[in-house]
# Entry
Amino acid sequence: MKVTIDGHTIDVEAGTTVLEAARAIGGPSVPPTMCYYSKLKDCGGKCRCCLVEISKGSERDPRPMPKLQPSCVTAVQDGMEVKSATSPKALDARRAVSEFLLINHPLDCPVCDQAGECDLQNLAYGNKNFKTRYKEERRTFEPEDIGPYIQLHMNRCVLCYRCVKLADQLTPERVHGVIGRGDHAQISTYISKAIDNDFSGNMIDVCPVGALTDKTFRFESRVWFNKPYNAHRDCPTCSGKVTLWMFGDKVQRVTGRKDVYHEVDEFICNDCRFHHKNAEDWVIEGPRKFEKPSVLNINNYIRPLKKVHIDADELILEGREQDEKKISMPAIPYDAVELEAIKEVKEE
Amino acid sequence: MAIENISLSGRKTAVSNKEMTFWERLYFIAIIKGMMITIKHFFSRKVTVQYPEQKREYSPVYRGQHVLMRDEEGRERCTACGLCALACPAEAITMKAAERTKEEMNLYREEKYAAIYEINMLRCIFCGLCEEACPKDAIYLTKSQKHVKPDVTRQSFIYGKDKLVISVEDGKSGKYAGLKPIQNKELN
# Structure
């Protein structure tokens, strides 16, 4: 099936979503996502961040779709024409959506451990709208303890349902879910039952905001001060392929390996994530690259430095012959030992 | 134009060996002219300051030693978000965060605070980027009106929280609050 997104035509299989087609093209036409997660089934259509304008429905029915469509749950049709980054209507709608998402967000980025790798920060920053028009009091929840490894900050949650879908699809029985409706909807557990599944830590990785964060890394360091390394270990429960966030020789935290859309390649187990904080436990493969404008790249020099060669005058240490004559020096003003030292320096 | 005729300053005058007249040789008029210049300065504004007794006012954009602010209730404003350390081009700032306990509610403003906050004054170039980066109005160079004093050991230039945080009384009385920095005003 041929689909054209922002003027780029691509051939995709039937059943592909518009978002996946846009990701196959890449570049600025990829819509931002908050709730969609390609590794999870039925995940998407909730946040409306990925709205696109469909200017031509299909080859058979070329009428444009009357409203903006969420690209993550809209399947492509043959001959479909989509405007993503080139549609002012869609960009306007996305800006409005991000403003809605920020209505109840506490904006405590200086305190939040997710700051620096937060999808909501990227979304708000990408929309370049830094003013709030909301005057009412923000929605707040009582802090709740959901276990020894995961910190829940319900105030920061954008209700993307990713963690719920993850628990449904990865583990046999989930103990947390969304309780309440509308403004009162919140992620919670059955009567504060602790989440203790082997793979529950992946909730941290799928959470687009700082609602679910690593308790063992809580306030340890800001994410951009750590250097990420690809590492692996022989783990009986999971693949053991992780990203280590190191400060010096110290492993500050362990996460899954995330791709450019901040989606983990493989889910890792709690044992790898929370209990192996020694560098000796891991086989470090090498430094991990991030997209160029990310704050995580600060001070991470991944290329080896070349030795600087100074292209200087051959006789820079001894002085040139014509200068010797000018200042009426009879000969080179060095004794044999000094000449030897000069020779050594030059040979280096 | 020949090189000897060019005057970059515009004040070049040719020197001549012309013989002076009788009046010129008396130097009477020249002395009067010179005295006029001297006397004129008696009535102009004095530029010197009698330093230890009299101190010159700081410019509003003067940048001196950093201070870590407290709010009106005397709680520390810094939340150890690390943006000052990130903005610092000289990498002079280091910090370590800690979580506030229930008993410390009156000491720290937010959930997280800086347990260790150090500025290496030998590295610091007093550019003021930390002040600009701070989202919590916690660090200021423009308000302290203090200098970093010279010393003989390197260790003494690493200023910890003991030297940087203002006293609780200063925070409550709003001693530093009055002097608003100029650069942020227009942005907000």
